[in-house]
Design a protein that fits this description.
Oligomer: single chain
Structural class: alpha+beta
Bound molecules: adenosine-5'-triphosphate, magnesium ion
Largest sheet: 8 strands, mixed
Strand order of the largest sheet: 1-5-6-11-10-9-7-8
CATH architecture of the largest domain: 2-Layer Sandwich
Shape: elongated
Number of strands: 16
Length: 418
């Protein structure tokens, strides 16, 4: 028996309704905020992610699905969307358009991780990217978009964690402060962190090992080492969040340990789904577009993990499943009645009525059982007698009422059940 690859999932109809709901809210919120949808390839040249995600990240070092194509080119299944969007913006010359440029995407991503609840090898992201604006107002608008989306799908139990990680001006000085602090406790760090102590000390701050994260709690804070411009930017963001009705807390342990990330970084963290609790993460990446060979173009974006959102929704949010019932089930008995049933279904569906009928030649009793199973709101039984005198009983299954209808006046049937 062939099984699906480890860490992937089948999404069956009952479940996919939740996905459609989330995707619809995402599209509606993006329209309200003026973000247009972008679609891009599932795989890209490996080089794009090495440069656009970062050579020293776990994603690039351990988690990429990379293969060599028949012509020898190295490609990678996208582990995230931001680098792809930045590549597309450059390649399509969008950086010459009127700024800001606001884009969103809904994609599957691939990372070779250890599968567990909330962590998969193929997972889904809803992401948004805003290019060409460096103001704290842009950061606020992007965070508001994420917040609108989360509230729109009924998730109210998340907290926004924000931090500022400074810019290339103030980072070197902060890095030295970090190296000095961690050097003092070098022996206790995990092997990975020991090796990145000098190359990329910021990454130690988001190491998942319990010992490293305990040590990181008392490390120097980025916000105490910001230059004046970064300080002003962060104050501008906080002032705007305060008037936007979004609760937030400053969280000095949120970092993006790469040089092209700057200033604002944030995460929406959900209560109650255990350790994989970050449902949405984002930040400003003013150096990214240049890093992958484009012009100087500021950007800020986020990505929300749809699988984790679904886990959160299942932990008690306001999502109400619709019953999915058919508006009408037509029960034909015999060939001639079956033709009539097809005619009525075709007529009603043109008017957006959800119809179902017998396709397998069931008995009347079995058909009624089926109508019940699919939650049909109305039933119409058509046998020889009904065909002969052109009339049938339309039964409302919710209140048991019966109405006699003419089988040649389908408009009248529609009027009753619409
Ligand atoms: P984590 O620290 O949990 O590994 P990350 O920093 O790798 O997250 P990002 O690259 O910022 O995550 O991706 C944005 C969002 O995508 C995450 O907040 C999370 O909700 C989701 N996500 C990331 N990796 C996975 C995965 N393997 N399975 C399911 N969702 C994921
Ligand atoms: Mg990760």
């Amino acid at each position: 028996m062939i099984q699906k690859p480890r860490g992937t999932m089948d999404i069956l109809p009952k479940e996919s309704k939740k996905w459609q709901f989330i995707e619809k809210v995402a599209r509606d919120v993006c329209r309200k905020h003026g973000f247009g949808e972008i679609r891009f390839p599932t795989f890209e040249e490996t080089q794009l992610f090495k440069r656009g995600v970062g050579d020293t990240t776990d994603v690039v070092q351990k988690e990429m699905y990379t293969f060599t194509d028949r012509d020898g080119t190295s490609y990678t299944l996208r582990p995230e969307g931001t680098a792809c969007v930045a590549r597309s913006v450059i390649e399509n010359g969008l950086s010459g358009d009127t700024m800001p440029l606001k884009l969103f995407y809904i994609i599957n991503c691939f990372r070779h991780e250890r599968p567990q609840a909330g962590r998969y090898r193929e997972f889904y992201q809803f992401g948004a990217e805003l290019f060409g604006a460096t103001t704290p107002s842009a950061d606020t608008e992007l965070i508001c978009l994420a917040d609108d989306f989360l509230k729109g799908i009924g998730i109210n139990n998340t907290t926004l964690h924000v931090n500022s990680i400074g810019c290339p001006e103030c980072r070197p000085q902060y890095k030295s402060a970090l190296v000095e602090y961690f050097s003092g406790r070098q022996d206790e760090l995990c092997d990975t962190c020991k090796s990145r102590l000098h190359s990329n000390p910021l990454r130690i701050l988001d190491c998942k090992s319990p010992i490293c994260s305990a040590i990181a709690k008392d490390a120097p804070k980025t916000i105490d080492h910001l230059c004046d411009a970064c300080k002003e930017h962060f104050e501008g963001l906080k002032a705007r969040l305060n008037v936007s009705g979004i609760d937030y807390e400053i969280d000095c342990n949120i970092v993006r340990g790469l040089d092209y990330y700057s200033r604002t970084v944030f995460e929406f963290i959900s209560e109650g789904i255990g350790s994989q609790s970050t449902v949405c993460g984002g930040g400003r990446y003013d150096g990214l577009v240049e890093q992958i060979g484009g012009p100087k173009l500021a950007g800020i974006g986020f990505a929300a993990g749809i699988n984790r959102l679904i886990l959160t929704m299942e932990n008690g949010s306001s999502y109400v499943e619709d019953d999915g019932g058919a508006d009408i089930y037509i029960a034909p008995l015999g060939e001639a009645a079956s033709v009539k049933a097809n005619e009525i279904c075709a007529f009603l569906r043109k008017k957006d009525i959800v119809c179902d009928t017998d396709l397998v030649g069931r008995s009347l009793k079995a058909q009624m059982k089926y109508a019940n199973k699919i939650n049909a709101k109305n039933t119409l039984i058509i046998g020889d007698g009904e065909l002969e005198n052109g009339k049938a009983q339309l039964r409302n299954m919710l209140n048991g009422e019966q109405t006699e209808v003419s089988l040649s006046d389908l408009e009248a049937i529609y009027d009753i059940i619409k």
